[in-house]
Write a sequence for this structure.
């Protein structure tokens, strides 16, 4: 079987195996067969069966080598990105449950003050009112214990403990997102040249909600222009004005709102949509 | 021509071309799975609607045997009441 770095082991073909068989047979019995003249003999019958078995075994072996290569490659990738780094921890927590994560979005504060060296500010976007919150919380604590380095000072409102292998108990803390309550108002001006149907308020609101879920997450700046666009979402519009209010509608703004790592927009009421 | 023989004493090798000749003349389709395009399909000759003369089969059989390295020495036809027996002697290789 030939080895190739790209493809691994290559099983031999029937013709190659037959040639080997004929060579061995000639050496054993002093005959002078070639791969054509041996066809039809009992020797060929026996060889045919044997070659099928060898081909099956070689195919299985090649399959195993490919799986092994894949396993080594995956392991290498895991080693390359240890979970104790910021990227590794955030990616590890976001990974599906089947891959050892929790599927949760998280952020970590960028420490720029020397006085905060050794402090860990972790925010996890999860719902504290969920019925299985206790399990999720302990899941987060377990992962902090397993993945983060020692001698960190943890901050946050959510506290839990985890026992180390030597019996010591360690306390871990993380925070939930700080919610910024806003109202959203969407004003759309239809184009007189519109070639596509004009959507009603509910349809526009559905598109906005879907885009928000897709493009916005904990710690991201709130950028109104991103969640409804003429070309992508509303080709019938000539202008879209997406405004938000942080004071229950007293004043409205449409410029991007910078958010801290632990802040998340919380839209308290369904968006008001006006289509003109 | 050294060939393998399976007998009561197990597998052995003998200088013979009988088995190859037999395989060439044997019914082929569905039976010689290890060499599907080898030999003569006996059933095709005698089982088809088209009547093929026995002389044609004889000539074809001799030709196929020679093609595959088997040397026929003679072919004797014995006609019975309801059947015909073809006796082919081949050269020891």
């Amino acid at each position: 079987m030939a080895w190739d770095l790209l493809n691994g082991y290559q099983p031999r073909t029937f013709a190659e195996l037959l040639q080997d068989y004929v060579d061995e047979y000639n050496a054993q019995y002093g005959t002078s067969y070639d791969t054509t003249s041996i066809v039809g003999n009992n020797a060929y019958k026996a060889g045919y069966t044997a070659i099928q078995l060898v081909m099956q075994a070689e195919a299985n072996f090649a399959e195993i080598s490919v799986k092994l290569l894949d396993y080594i490659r995956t392991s290498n990738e895991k080693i390359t990105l240890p979970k104790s780094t910021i990227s590794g921890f955030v990616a590890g927590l976001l990974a599906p449950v089947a891959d050892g994560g929790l599927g949760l979005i998280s952020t970590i504060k960028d420490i720029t003050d020397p006085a905060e060296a050794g402090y860990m500010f972790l925010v996890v976007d999860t719902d504290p009112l969920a019925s299985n919150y206790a399990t999720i919380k302990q899941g987060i604590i377990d992962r902090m214990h397993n993945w983060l380095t020692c001698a960190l000072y943890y901050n946050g409102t959510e506290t839990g403990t985890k026992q180390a292998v030597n019996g010591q108990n360690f306390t871990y803390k993380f925070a939930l997102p700080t919610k910024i309550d806003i109202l959203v108002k969407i004003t759309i001006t239809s184009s007189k040249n519109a070639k596509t149907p004009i959507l009603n308020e509910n349809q526009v609101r559905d598109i906005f909600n879907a885009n928000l879920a897709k493009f916005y997450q904990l710690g991201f700046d709130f950028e109104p222009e991103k969640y409804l666009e003429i070309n992508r979402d509303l080709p019938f519009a000539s202008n879209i004005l997406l405004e938000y209010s942080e004071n229950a509608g007293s004043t409205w703004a449409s410029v991007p709102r910078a958010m801290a790592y632990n802040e998340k927009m919380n839209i308290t009421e369904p968006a008001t949509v006006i289509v003109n | 021509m050294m060939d393998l023989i399976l007998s009561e004493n197990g597998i052995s090798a003998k200088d013979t071309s009988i088995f190859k000749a037999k395989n060439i003349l044997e019914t082929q389709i569905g039976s010689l799975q290890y060499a599907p395009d080898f030999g003569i399909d006996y059933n095709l000759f005698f089982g088809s609607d088209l009547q093929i003369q026995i002389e044609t089969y004889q000539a074809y059989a001799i030709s196929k045997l020679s093609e595959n390295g088997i040397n026929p020495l003679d072919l004797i036809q014995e006609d019975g009441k309801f059947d015909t027996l073809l006796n082919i002697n081949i050269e020891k290789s």
